Fold:
Amino acid sequence: MAALRAGLIGLGAMGRHHARVLREMDGVDLVAVADPGGDPFRVAGPLEVLRDVEALIAAGIDMAVVAVPTAFHEPVAVALAEAGVHTLVEKPIALDVPAGERVRDAFGRAGLVGCIGHIERFNPAIQEVRRRVAAGELGEVYQIVTRRQGPFPARIADVGVIKDLATHDIDSTAWVAGAAYDSVSAQTAFRSGRSHEDMVLATGRLADGVIVNHVVNWLSPMKERITIVTGERGALTADTSSGDVTFYANGTVATEWESVASFRGVSEGDVIRYAIAKREPLRNELEAFRDAVLGEENRTVTMAEGLTTLRVAEAMLASAADRGRTVSL
Structure:
């Protein structure tokens, strides 16, 4: 079978990694790249850097990755759908919900594979936590907490930290729990002089009763990518920067030291760091996209799922604009 002809539009900080992985994948040939801003990371290699999506389509591609700024997701994705090109759009699906609906509908009408690049679903640490939660290793799940913070990325100019970063945690939290968001409340801060928020503290409840909390910002010198799932038998933590998964079991040994025991709820038990295969998330994601295009099992994040995540993000923004009012979804 001939290799799928792939195109890439957007050669910036994320696009350069897509170019690398697409070139390394079996069954895919990267045949065209486009970016009106040129090729700042020099990833095009022998390929001509095309100016726009129309030129990319004219190259005769079967599948495409869209890694342009969020404001351009809708026009680029819709053009690809109308041209009959299977497409992965980097998260979020679009700048706002109405635009996201138009993107979803364009791919639905065309009967094409359309998916969203919520890469944390393909992180081996998150996948391992989801597998263990689904297997009942924590028993009933009570709470999911995430911390995603680090230095300011000057490249992001068209959205704030909620749509750019918190969407990772919204998608992965709902996926790990297997339940949609029921309500959210958020507080934001604007500390870097931009028109978009750069810090958010959000709390919420999922449809199954699990409570959630997200700490996300662009103003920390300390980079964190942590997810903690707490249940009746203990807690699972995933560090998606290192790919580590650790289980903290509730203890079965009574604490005899009274002054220590008085400060503890459940007792502390064994701590296990699991040894798991640490495969690059982007490779997992793009291989899932390729397989879906080939008609195999669809393991992608669908556009409908991406739109649901964007709705939660916009609910957080609406809550923050109304002094933290709880918004039902």
